[in-house]
Design a protein that fits this description.
The protein has 180 residues and is an all-alpha fold. The chain contains nine helices and no strands. α2 packs antiparallel against α3, α3 packs parallel to α5 and α5 runs antiparallel to α6.
Length: 180
């Protein structure tokens, strides 16, 4: 594909939100949960109920920590998106590239957004369907195959600590050049 065939490109912040939309909706739920649990925790503190204080504080901590994990996961998926978009731009739609993002719903979504912005949405969704991916496959496949995933480096590195990727192309500029 040449940049002359490049579809209209959204602004980067729009792509960032589209890539992590599932994560950001989940983050909103965790923010609401944290607020609720904090309210219950304060109520338990006022009533001097140690068991309830410990219970509600544990619930609050669980929800509050998840907010930051989702932010980190969203950042990692955005790095996946930038890499996938560059690879699709250079090689066209490729099953080898798509396979790199087959592991989880969020990674697939990053690849789908990248492919869609280059005009390959039909190809990637058809490919994922041919690999047996269903719309309800939310949990990453490695969680099913490896129950001890929390203790593995690959989980932490691939889920929350993806290295920053600098896109090789300025797609908005390429689109504007095409318009001239």
């Amino acid at each position: 594909m040449t940049y002359l065939e490049l579809p209209p490109q959204p602004y980067l912040y729009i792509s960032y939100l589209r890539v992590g939309k599932l994560l950001y909706w989940s983050m909103l739920l965790f923010i609401l949960e944290s607020w609720f649990y904090w309210y219950k925790f304060e109520y338990a503190l006022e009533n001097y109920s140690l068991i309830w204080v410990a219970f509600w504080f544990s619930c609050f901590l669980f929800s509050f920590v998840h907010i930051f994990l989702l932010i980190m996961d969203g950042w990692s998926r955005f790095q996946n998106y930038k890499r996938a978009k560059d690879l699709f731009f250079v090689h066209g739609f490729s099953s080898k590239v798509a396979d790199m993002y087959l592991g989880s719903k969020c990674q697939r979504n990053a690849a789908i957004v990248a492919a869609e912005e280059l005009g390959y949405k039909h190809e990637i969704t058809t490919y994922f369907r041919s690999k047996g991916v269903k719309w309800f496959h939310y949990f990453p496949y490695f969680m099913i195959h490896d129950p001890l995933f929390l203790f593995k480096n690959y989980f932490w590195e691939r889920t929350f600590l993806e290295k920053s990727y600098i896109a090789k192309f300025d797609y908005k500029r390429l689109q504007l050049e095409r318009a001239i």
